[in-house]
Amino acid sequence: MTDDSGELGLEYEIDDRPPLLESVLLGIQHVSVMIVPATAVAFIVAGAVGLGVADTAYVVQMVLLFSGLATVVQAYAVGPVGSRLPIVMGTSFTFVGAATTIGVDYGLSAVFGAILVTGFVVEGLIGWQFDRIKPFFPPLVTGLVVVIIGLYLVPVGMDYAAGGVGAADYGAAYNIGLAALVLCVAVALNLFTDGITRLLSTLVGIAVGYVVAWVLGVVDFTPVAEAAWFAIPRPGAFGVTFEPVPIVTFAFLFLVSAMETVGDMSGITAAEGRNPTDEEFRGGLFTDGFMSSIASVFGAFPVTSFSQNVGIVNFTGVMSRYVVGIAGVVLAVLGLSPKVGAAVATIPSAVFGGAVLLMAGMVAASGVRLVFLHTNLDRRNMVVVAASLGLGLGVATRPDALSGLPQAAATFFGQPVIVTALTALVLNTLAPGDQSPLFDAADESVAADGRASTDD
Q: Among 165, 243, 363, 373, whose Cα sits 20 to 30 Å from the Cα of 157?
């Protein structure tokens, strides 16, 4: 439900502090929907480059630790770094392909060297100058970025719901059943209950699915027994080297990450019926870049805003950054204790998939809402929407269509977020309209002077 300004009926606003126990449970709910995909990136890359069990566990540990630290910085800020918005940070699948390929061809030291350089330079520069480029990112553009982030997460959620890509039991009836159970419980509690059960609907859904999965015997506790209780971060664990091709590749990917973060911040503030401020945009982008560079020194992959958790905020109506700060602390603790992290990671993919499907849909819906609230969908804007989503979903669903391009171009234009964002950015900028940075000011001055009518 919304008020006249388009704001959702928030249970807790950005500076509210729910009771401690409720805040902890809400924070754990945030952790529960992002911990599997965040750590999956580490598992995938580690497996591809041939890391042993101990090194793989260490990379997972660092991903959790720096996801937590970045989340706290994002929510509360350290100087200019941090948006002061309830944004949960984690390692994005955007970087999996490049990290795997470069890790095999050049070694992990080249991966971490490229992250160290490009995190600071690319996202730092974008954040520093964002007030100058902000007119190029009106609600029409940022809303479309939020929509495509949600839509391309849907196949990921379906893969998890089926048991995980490559799983021997992919598509098994019990996997689909577990995912459906989680989704149904979360939706039912959110729509038909009030109070704490509605706020924790996603966490309760995951908990019910987890218990049923344990009864069915599909929960494996072996990694918990093998994990250590405590481990200390080691700077330079995998070395740092600088190679031109990895640096250029990660520069493109950090551009994608910046666009995702702009979209996620817009999705968060859409709950208040507004776009982020210049300061929020700048601080959020600084967090992406600076924390990713610092994390690379310790052997973690880039940290960026997590779209699933934008869906949590919109789904529950809990926008408190205090809650998200607690989620960051929980993540950091998990990162310091591999045994605890291993216990959380025993959540079956199908259980997690039910939650991701719901969150992906909510992210896309929040993007649609952002466009509708601030954009007149006339012919010009409908063309921008159609072209942007058509191309973005096209490369997302049929990436092989770009196989004839040079590898660098195929990698760059194979990213649905960047294709959607660039298409919307170019068309919105060049086509005359009230959201174009090249034409809107001129149109307004002409109308004010009475030399033209705004009726079109």
A: 373
